[in-house]
Amino acid sequence: MFNSDIPIKRKEEDSLGRTSFSHSLGQAFLRYTNPESIVVGLYGSWGTGKTSIINLCLEFIEDQQINLENRMIILKFNPWNYSDQNQLIQQFFNEMIAVIKKKTIAEKAKMITQKILSYSRVLKPLKYIPVVGQYSELGSDIAEVLKEDTKELSELKNEINELLLSLEVKVLIIIDDIDRLNRQEIKQIFQLIKSLGDFNNTIYLVAFDKDVVVAALEELQGGSGDDYLEKIIQVPIAVPAANESEMEEVFFSKLNSIINDIPEESFDITYWGNVYLGGIKQFIKNMRDINRFCNVLSFSFEMIKDDVNPVDLISIVAIQVFLPDLYHQIRENKGLFIETIDSFWNIQYKKDEMKKKYDEIISSSSEVIEITELLKRIFPRLEEILGGTRYDSGWQSEWRKQKRICSSDYFDNYFRLTLAKEEIPSQVIKTAIYQTAINKFEFKEFVQGLINDNRINRFLEKIVDYIDIVPIENIKIIASVLLDLGDSFPEKTDAWGFIDSSFRLSRVLYNLFWRFDILEKREEIILEVIQSCNNSIYSPSHFLSYLRREYGTDERPAEPKEKQTMSEEKFTNVEAELLSKIIGWSKDKRLIEHKKFASLLFCWKRYGEHDLLNSYLNELKNNDRDLVVFISHFVGEGTVSSLGDYVGRRIWKINKKNIGEFFDLDELTERISNLKEDVLYSELNAEEKRAIELFLQKSSDDIFE
Length: 705
Description:
Elements (H helix, E strand, L loop, with lengths): L18 H13 L6 E6 L6 H15 L8 E5 L7 H19 L2 H18 L16 H28 L3 E5 L7 H14 L5 E7 L1 H12 L3 H8 L2 E4 L5 H16 L9 H9 L9 H18 L5 H13 L1 H9 L1 H5 L8 H19 L6 H7 L3 H4 L9 H7 L24 H9 L5 H13 L3 H8 L11 H11 L15 H13 L5 H13 L6 H11 L19 H20 L9 H11 L2 H12 L2 H9 L2 E6 L8 E6 L1 H4 L5 H13 L8 H11 L6 E2 L1
Parallel strand pairs: 1-4, 1-5, 2-3, 3-4
Antiparallel strand pairs: 6-7, 7-8
Helix pairs in contact: 1-2, 3-4, 4-5, 6-7, 7-8, 9-11, 10-16, 11-12, 12-13, 13-15, 20-22, 21-23, 22-23, 22-24, 23-25, 24-26, 25-26, 26-27, 29-32
């Protein structure tokens, strides 16, 4: 629900304690008995509630006179409705005539309104409104008319004054938002008040931002704008500042109405307090600020609330509303605000460069507002740039769980109204792990859909943050489906160019299985999941390689037994189960057609059953077509570039060393050379011919472009 910027009209709507002040102002008008015209100025900047005070004042006046016959006559004149100066003057008197007719007994009304009409007709041809006591810059024809009608104008004004005195009621003329007018119109309004409309029994209440009006008057005519106003405004009154606690109460009330459906555990009250007192509070100065802020937040929140941290969203919206240039700079300089300064850089040099960039952004964007404390709260890595605490990459997981803006995974969500095409709303993930995962078929359809629209890798990234809340009874289905479909996941590379889709899957499975605290239960579930895997063979082998590190390698010692996912004995049993599956795949051509064929052969070699492996390799060697496919699996793609190149050249390399793990290279070279002369060669595709050319090159490091 959006907050209207419309001023309040009744005391029941007053949440900032303005009623008492407004009623005192109304009481002063009712008790003013002097017949001379008086001008009261209500000073306040935009958003301080001038119009609301006027409305509450008028409500009080109406209530006090509800049973009186001769009630104060109220004229609310809106000068910004009329652009032409003559139209402005004419309309002022037309509106004055209308309210007097409506509020006065017929006889007196007719006499007064006829005189005012005559008065306005004499003024109608004026080119410029005269300053007090003089007429300036008039056309010759108008000047001549005025020379003839000066007496008539003065007499008409005197007659109007006498008639207004006889009414024995005041005419309260409200002119609000004078600061909205242009410079010339501002001056005209004050000249109208002082020299043309200063009738007996009239009270003017004029409301405006004094600084804006003073600047306009000084620019227009030179001299002191303050001095000019002092000659016009007899009673200057500043809008009282809103009570800070009342303003906060209104702000928090509106804020709560926006985020009321956020679970309590998702809103860090300590973090909110630090962010509010450390930055946001300085932005909230009046009701207009509150309404502007809450309108933007309400819109943004409803669109992306499930995929952001609520405190961070409130913070970045505050920057968006009150410091839009800084908001733009944050969006365009993502690396500066969330990047880690790592050991691969000259750290001090990079710090200095980033600090320089930060200072440039702040100096050009934040005016006089102190914003650094708030920015350090929501972007902790700025601390290091500014000489404080260093947050290493290990914090990224925690920030991702909290959907923080400082997380590289969530940063972009805060700067768009809809999620990226590849993004997956958090609610979708929760539904999948809570509800869909109850039924294996439904969950499999869900995962297949993510594969089809290329969002499965994003799912693997995000589900890690929800593993702690996955129902224990759903873990087996989730792990089984992910592993069974793992080989069909599109390959995604990390920042270093390594394919990490399999690693992401293995990490998810590892964390899922560790939800079972009892070793025997973990071992049982892992075995069952591997046994149920029929459509993938590389994914389970990669997962077991991921676990094998726990038993020690040449580079690292074994993990303590209490930290091992499985006992080594049970792990060996699971490897044997996977080996039987690999052998099964080899019997129906599925193995050699697999994109990870080379890796799977190494798994077979490591797991055992070497006689069966040799038998399988002999079958391949005796089949020319299979042999070509075999060496094709050891070809890899890369790029090289020369100095000055913007784009690298595509190259291909073959790993003869790995081929030598399975075949005698000299014997294989002879076989492949003969194939080039065979009729089969002409039937090969381009990739297979490339593999033959690469294999027959002398050096294993030779490349093919």
